[in-house]
Design a protein that fits this description.
Strands 3-2-1-4-5-6 form a six-stranded parallel sheet, with helices on both faces. It is elongated. The protein is α/β, with parallel strands linked by helices. It folds into two domains: about 170 residues, Rossmann fold; about 110 residues, 6-phosphogluconate dehydrogenase C-terminal like domain (6-phosphogluconate dehydrogenase C-terminal fold), CATH 1.10.3660. Strand 1, helix 1 and strand 2 form a beta-alpha-beta unit. The protein is about 50% helix and about 15% strand.
């Protein structure tokens, strides 16, 4: 039997979640379920979403002013789209107590770390970059649930300035949510997730754009089955969030897109030339790569 990882005993008197969406809301609910947090303050731009978060018990208090909200906080989780993070860091920096730990849940890391280093100033040593590898195609506080992170990877990317006490607190918080801790370098992180997350989202959005813009889209999509639904499920994700992610990680994403375009052009050439052997070889290669991936994950 595999021993469960030891989780340090922690308790937060005040947790502030900036961006009470699927990730931030689920983090708050998981810590509440574990009885590790006394008060959760949610910060956001949408009063409707904050109202939902209060009604559903995701948060205990709503705020639109991030600087006001973080005063006296033990932990601040920035769960907003990565494009908003520089402004958020700049806004909260003067209001942070010396002991307040700040972390994030951004899907890109080099840009977020650079923004935190620039705007948090001396408080950067209390910042712990993180990325939970969990999610659904739904967004907003109403989509949050406490089991979202159970058994999922949580990537930590401490910097040389990061205080050990801040790192321990954030690590313990995510372990209390049921997450497995993984360590990565920021550049390696962005390259990996450009390939396995950001690229698939671009492709899914592009495919639905192509089909949805057809004059016969309503009739055409009425005949669709599970294949299309499975392929474009993630196109239901937040456009704002994925816009920011793709722009932030464009250096990694552009060559990946070029590779996908080259694959599609090869498929087009095979079709144009009625080259069944080439087409079958492409399909077979894709199927075998998928099988290897699934077999490895099953072990």
């Amino acid at each position: 039997m595999t021993a469960k990882p030891r989780v340090a005993k922690i308790r937060f008197n005040k947790l502030v979640v900036i961006g009470v969406g699927l990730i931030g809301g689920s983090f708050a609910l998981a810590l509440k379920k574990a009885k590790l947090v006394k008060q959760v303050v949610g910060v956001g731009r949408s009063r409707g979403n904050l109202k939902d978060a209060l009604r559903l018990g995701v948060i205990d208090q709503a705020e639109t002013d991030a600087a006001k909200a973080v005063a006296g906080a033990d932990l601040v989780l920035v769960g907003a789209p990565v494009g908003q993070m520089p402004g958020i860091f700049a806004r909260i920096a003067p209001a942070l107590s010396p002991q307040t730990v700040v972390t994030d849940a951004g899907s890109t890391k080099q840009d977020v770390i650079a923004a935190a280093r620039r705007h948090l100033g001396a408080h950067f040593s209390m910042f712990v970059p993180a990325h939970p590898i969990a999610g659904t195609e739904h967004s907003g506080a109403a989509a949050a649930f406490p089991e979202l992170f159970r058994g999922r990877n949580l990537i930590l990317l401490p910097q040389h300035e990061t205080r050990a006490s801040a790192l321990r607190l954030v690590k313990s918080a995510w372990q209390a949510c049921g997450a497995r801790i993984v360590w990565l370098d920021a550049a390696e992180h962005d390259e990996i997730f450009g390939a396995v997350s950001h690229l698939p989202h671009v492709i899914a959005f592009a495919l639905m754009n192509q089909l949805g813009r057809r004059r016969d889209a309503k009739r055409l999509l009425g005949f669709s089955g599970g294949g299309l639904r499975d392929t474009v499920r993630i196109a239901g994700s937040s456009p704002e969030m994925w816009r920011d992610i793709c722009i932030a990680n464009r250096e990694a994403l552009l060559p990946l897109l070029d590779g996908s375009i080259a694959e599609l052009e090869a498929a087009r050439d095979a079709l144009a030339n009625a080259d069944g052997d080439a087409l079958e070889a492409m399909f077979r290669g894709g199927r075998e790569a998928r099988a290897r991936w699934l077999l490895k994950n099953a072990k």
